[in-house]
Automatic annotation (TrEMBL):
One of its GO terms (molecular function) is ATP binding. Residues 292-304 have a biased composition (Basic and acidic residues). InterPro entries: P-loop_NTPase, Zeta_toxin_domain. Residues 36-219 form the Zeta toxin domain. Belongs to the zeta toxin family. Keywords: ATP-binding, Nucleotide-binding. Residues 286-313 are annotated as: Disordered. Pfam families: Zeta_toxin. Its EC number is 2.7.1.176. It is an enzyme of class 2 (transferase). This is UDP-N-acetylglucosamine kinase.
Length: 313
């Protein structure tokens, strides 16, 4: 499927969006929801590929009655073109599905509020006003509020961004691409958002977690919350981290060459990672990759059985 195809325009129609919500999404949320007497809204933030899924699992364990998970990315699958996009134009998928996913995220938050259900809203925190406005709304509804931010150096999340896409690509899974610009815009915005969250007075509890899901800070002190996050976010890579990144990056570059998928789009990410490591002249390598035609991908089932290839670009 060529890039630039006009995918379903109906996804801008609120009547259609509401119909999908009522038929496919709301029943699933209702089945996983449990009203509580003192509901809490947990705001989980961090740049793409920082490890929010793992952090969310740890947070859910800490709340009796559970937390309804609200993740915008999870709603992309309900877009009628989602599967075709993942197969035929995975690099376009995020932009095409974003409006619908954002709409359904808002509906999910409204559902939790209306039914007294504790929830965890996962996001990038790229836009501080969205976080603060929703926190203020939660307070007006007499809900408890808990802000959790992941302290992960951008080099590690840049690597994660590529690893999860290319790993899924070669294993035959639906490879979900995250635009690098979304990562870099978030990295630039996070210091301001974390500060705004810290000083807002809108949160009953403030926490910082690392990529493994461990708490680095958990309390109510805004200064400690911000400083502990900043120290880890800006930390130089350890020797073990450098070795891990170099090994994984070599594997990723091998997949890029083999598949020819996303060469142009992933190039700035790879350059950024090498810059984080202290620099490496990639000019010759990248010019060689750019000259390579797309190759046939042979996806595999989890047990290693060939599944039948597809042409991907």
């Amino acid at each position: 499927m060529p890039r630039g195809r006009r995918w379903s325009r109906m996804m801008t129609d609120e009547v259609f969006l509401d119909d999908v919500w009522k038929r496919k999404i709301e029943p699933r949320l209702a089945a996983r929801s449990m009203p509580v007497s003192e509901p809490v809204t947990v705001f989980l933030g961090g740049q793409p590929a920082a490890g929010k899924t793992r952090a969310q699992r740890e947070l859910v364990r800490g709340y009796s009655g559970g937390l309804l998970s609200i993740v915008g990315d999870d709603f992309r699958q309900f877009h009628p073109d989602y599967e075709r996009l993942c197969e035929e134009d995975p690099l376009a998928m995020p932009d095409v599905t974003a409006p619908a996913a954002g709409y359904w995220t808002g509906k999910a938050v409204g559902y939790a509020d209306a039914h007294g259900v504790s929830c965890i809203i996962e996001g990038t925190w790229r836009n501080e006003s969205i976080v603060l406005d929703e926190a203020a709304r939660a307070r007006l509804l007499k809900r408890k509020t808990h802000a959790v931010v992941l302290a992960v150096p951008p080099m590690l999340s840049r690597l994660g961004l590529l690893a999860r896409f290319y790993d899924d690509l070669v294993s035959g899974e639906q490879a979900r691409w995250t635009p690098p610009r979304a990562h870099e815009n978030t990295v630039r915005a996070l210091p301001s958002t974390v500060h705004a969250v810290a000083v807002s007075g809108l949160f009953d509890r403030l926490s910082v977690m690392d990529r493994s899901g461990a708490f680095l800070y958990d309390g109510t002190d805004p200064k400690h919350f911000e400083s502990i996050w900043s120290d880890r976010f800006t930390a130089e890579p350890t020797a073990d981290e450098r070795l891990m990144v170099e090994r994984n990056l070599a594997a990723i570059e091998s997949i890029r060459q083999e598949t020819g998928v996303g060469l142009e789009e992933s190039e700035p990410v790879i350059e950024g990672i090498y810059a984080d490591l202290g620099g490496r002249d990639l000019t010759a390598e990248l010019e060689e990759l750019d000259d390579m035609p797309p190759r046939r991908v042979q996806p595999r089932e989890p047990k290693g059985t060939p599944r039948g290839g597809r042409w991907r670009r």
